[in-house]
């Protein structure tokens, strides 16, 4: 009876949100939630709700729809990461075996209810409070960067009728005045000395984007491994009573881990020659600051593992 009421509320809310998918047909939603993560139609509905939610919320995690029941486990891992980022309050969706949570009909209905309520709230907040950029006017990323430069150099707000040439000439003049006050070689010589044209910068941007994409994939994998590892801590009977305490400690730290790279071409321009000096991590000067008692334990463990692997 409770599940029937939840299904009715979900269908009404989906129509209000503008959903036009096949699950609005009679019995389709009930059949999809019964199969849960094994149902591609259920995962498509979840992916649609998340995509709509990402329009209004800055979410790092995302959920992809599946094409077959064999992808159910991967889908549940993605949902787990998303709910962790959103600080979902429902323990049945955030604790226990991550590969079995969304194989229960009630949990699937609860997930849809939660995503729908978050999307409804986000849309209402957007109506009542327009985005800050629209309020500020001219609050683009470039504007914010130039504003940050002026603040860092202690420059006053430029007049409205100033030209771009005059504006950047003023920044250059102020920068030279500031550098004249610091000791020689305080900033260091630039690592990139060769003048670049538009074609060069275009290629450098493409290289940086390719590296950033690779970095994002690797970081997502590490974050996913972290989530699964932390979730495994709560599988024991003793740890189940400490689920809330674990989430309270872990979620704030987890929420600040972003898979996106923050490195841009600007960092290349700002790089100094000292970055070209590569020091081995095993060098004496480096080991003075990184050596600790745990290194001996790790070394013994590696020796033992190597011995057992090759000789036993």
UniProtKB/TrEMBL annotation:
InterPro entries: FAM98. This is Family with sequence similarity 98 member A. It comes from the Eukaryota. Belongs to the FAM98 family. PANTHER family: FAM98, PROTEIN FAM98A.
